[in-house]
């Protein structure tokens, strides 16, 4: 397989695994939760008869349930298995999404989006955890990177397709949410998950106590907080990139779209190289430090960019750091434990969702407070730049704490320990 080896390195053989391919198919759906709806919001205000302010509730209704449910679903997958949870997640995501094509009642729309958000909670964290079950070391880093890259490609292709389909009719793009149904059939028929060590050996209460003890260990706590930094940074970029391009450097909305596209392409490409990068170092510490600095400095460059080409250079830094950091963080987290892997991955995912939710709010407050003294454009510039540098510092500090902390206590069932 010379071509795949060239792309992904020595661990490229995992692409031939049926289980891996099925997980990649399942992974096509979660990114569509917000990416498919985002470009349609303006066009949906008329058929739903709601204001521009209220239409944003379609995003909130989708993201809200996963903040609470992701840790619960992760713990459930440790007890009953990944496959049942993944199947239910696919079906709920598909039902909630395709149902949007058949109603213009906004209250029903929000209920369907909430249902879709419940389904989302059973997808990405379970897919990430399943990859940790199937692979170890460099193979797992490669698997997580390829999975993350497919998310980036999904974010590039499907929103464009939705923009074309909405010109046919406002509800046609929602039929794309039927994708999970055939995938669920394939997963049900062909996916064989490995047995998870310790599954069913402890009560739900005992499992929760064990998970709390695990996340309270300094090394794991620091990694979980550090893992939320890329989410904060990337949402900060998506929220303010258009203001920087259009208002600060006199660009156009199309050029703002180019900046997002370049960043997405770079993050998808960088994610595929996570396994190779891991193989070059004795631990994941230094690659994570480099990726964190790349994101933070890249965002600062975008914030202070005098022209679009400079902003594009910053976008490359953001994309490269985002693709590598989340792939490696997920690989590190799955390696801390086997018996509680689903719960731990879900805690990390939930913290990432919280960071993504908080980022626009915190930055909006900062811009509002600075705008009176500096003006809106300058306030946005300095807020974006300061956010990049501050998050880079926080991310590196988390990694330093993780490295200096005592080793993680051995897994109670397997005795397995892996340091970051």
UniProtKB/TrEMBL annotation:
The chain crosses the membrane at residues 53-73, 85-104, 110-134, 146-168, 174-191, 285-305, 311-333, 354-376, 382-402. Residues 19-403 form the Major facilitator superfamily (MFS) profile domain. Keywords: Cell membrane, Membrane, Transmembrane, Transmembrane helix, Transport. The keyword Membrane applies. Pfam families: MFS_1. It is a multi-pass membrane protein. It is found in: Cell membrane. Gene3D superfamilies: MFS general substrate transporter like domains (1.20.1250.20). InterPro entries: MFS, MFS_dom, MFS_trans_sf, MFS_Transporters, Sugar_transporter_CS. PANTHER family: INTEGRAL MEMBRANE TRANSPORT PROTEIN, RESISTANCE PROTEIN MDTM, PUTATIVE-RELATED-RELATED. GO terms for cellular component: plasma membrane. This is MFS transporter. It comes from the Archaea.
